[in-house]
């Protein structure tokens, strides 16, 4: 498959009536908090997942890891208590205010590490998709950022339906694979939900000859996780699904996705989907043509490579 240059406004030309677009409706939390240890050392907290209104699992960056039972002081007397560790994450309890109130009052939007500037008020809107409803992500499902109301209206006029899943993107999405043996890679867990209504929409799309088109890799992981048993069924819970070359796709026929970091699981996912050679050609072309990469960058429309996608179950 040879790459072809287009503008995003050309997307309707690549779609067909009866296709189904699937979006991720997660909303990015103001999940970065700054404070000090009781000893005075500076601390940066990045909330990975809320597990109760007053408890969270979080990454903690400090000159020395805080001890169990100690407290992290935030602004104006607010604090977090260190309950313990779960692997690389710390379990933190909000002492007085709940996390919703803490993040609203003191939180910062966690821009990706390759955006090397502090967040500002414009990011509150620019780093959320039109579909952002269910708060819980620490990164935006960036393929959805390309869509505006005018594009959605054009697609609706064409007879293209829309469905929504929820996957709360975790900080692990930015982590490179650090082992040559992919069987040894520990995939980060992310919470997701695929509803019964979405499963019914997919079934109706199939019955009328339409395609299921995922907007972003998070939607791919959501749908394929829900179909891991062989057919698509409702799913609610955590997924560690690692999609890499050789994976057999059960639901998704095409996808819209941004360009991804080298050595990332997301790059492996798109290589599994459209074929390694096709993806490498696309990336070489994008570099040669000066495409912009990552969160606020350019996008690809990919179709599934049937042969490579059917190598194994």
UniProtKB/TrEMBL annotation:
Give one Pfam family, short name only: Queuosine_synth
According to its UniProt record, the EC number is 2.4.99.17
The top EC class, named as a word, is transferase
GO CC, one annotated term: cytoplasm
GO process terms (BP): tRNA queuosine(34) biosynthetic process
What reactions does this protein catalyze?
7-aminomethyl-7-carbaguanosine(34) in tRNA + S-adenosyl-L-methionine = epoxyqueuosine(34) in tRNA + adenine + L-methionine + 2 H(+)
**Which UniProt keywords are listed?**
Cytoplasm, Isomerase, Queuosine biosynthesis, S-adenosyl-L-methionine, Transferase
Q: Organism's domain of life?
A: Bacteria
Name one molecular function that GO assigns to this entry. S-adenosylmethionine:tRNA ribosyltransferase-isomerase activity
- List where in the cell it is found: Cytoplasm
Pathway stated in the Swiss-Prot or TrEMBL entry: tRNA modification; tRNA-queuosine biosynthesis
Specify whether Cytoplasm is a keyword of the entry: yes
Indicate where this protein is primarily found: cytoplasm
Subunit structure of this chain's protein: Monomer.
Q: What role is this protein assigned?
A: Transfers and isomerizes the ribose moiety from AdoMet to the 7-aminomethyl group of 7-deazaguanine (preQ1-tRNA) to give epoxyqueuosine (oQ-tRNA).
Q: Which family does it belong to?
A: Belongs to the QueA family.
NCBIfam families tied to this protein:
PRK00147.1, queA
For this entry, the protein name equals S-adenosylmethionine:tRNA ribosyltransferase-isomerase
Q: Kindly list the organism's lineage.
A: Bacteria, Pseudomonadati, Pseudomonadota, Gammaproteobacteria, Chromatiales
């Amino acid at each position: 498959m040879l790459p072809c240059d287009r503008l995003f406004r050309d997307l309707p030309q690549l779609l067909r009536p009866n296709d189904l677009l699937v979006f991720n409706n997660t909303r990015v939390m103001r999940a970065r908090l700054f404070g000090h240890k009781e000893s005075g050392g500076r601390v940066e907290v990045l909330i990975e997942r809320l597990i109760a209104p007053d408890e969270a699992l979080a990454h903690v960056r400090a000159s020395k890891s805080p001890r169990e039972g100690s407290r992290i002081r935030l602004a104006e007397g607010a604090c977090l208590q260190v309950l313990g560790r779960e692997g690389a994450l710390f379990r933190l309890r909000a002492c007085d205010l709940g996390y919703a109130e803490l993040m609203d009052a003191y939180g910062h939007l966690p821009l990706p590490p390759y955006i090397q500037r502090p967040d500002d008020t414009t990011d509150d809107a620019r780093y959320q998709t039109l579909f952002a409803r269910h708060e819980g992500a620490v990164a935006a499902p960036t393929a959805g950022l390309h869509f505006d109301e005018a594009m959605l209206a054009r697609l609706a006029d064409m007879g293209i339906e829309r469905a929504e899943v929820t996957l709360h993107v975790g900080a692990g999405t930015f982590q490179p694979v650090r082992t040559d043996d992919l069987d040894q890679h520990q995939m980060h867990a992310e919470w997701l939900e695929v509803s019964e209504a979405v499963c019914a929409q997919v079934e109706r799309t199939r019955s009328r000859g339409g395609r299921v088109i995922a907007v972003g890799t998070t939607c791919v992981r959501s749908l394929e996780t829900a179909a891991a048993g062989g057919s698509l069924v409702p799913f609610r819970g955590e997924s560690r699904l690692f999609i890499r070359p050789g994976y057999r796709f059960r639901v998704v026929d095409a996808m819209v996705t941004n360009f991804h970091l080298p050595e990332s699981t997301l790059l492996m996912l798109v290589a599994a989907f459209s074929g390694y050679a096709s993806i490498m050609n696309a990336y070489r072309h994008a570099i040669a043509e000066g495409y912009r990469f990552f969160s606020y960058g350019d996008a690809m429309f990919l179709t599934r490579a049937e042969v490579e996608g059917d190598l194994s179950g």
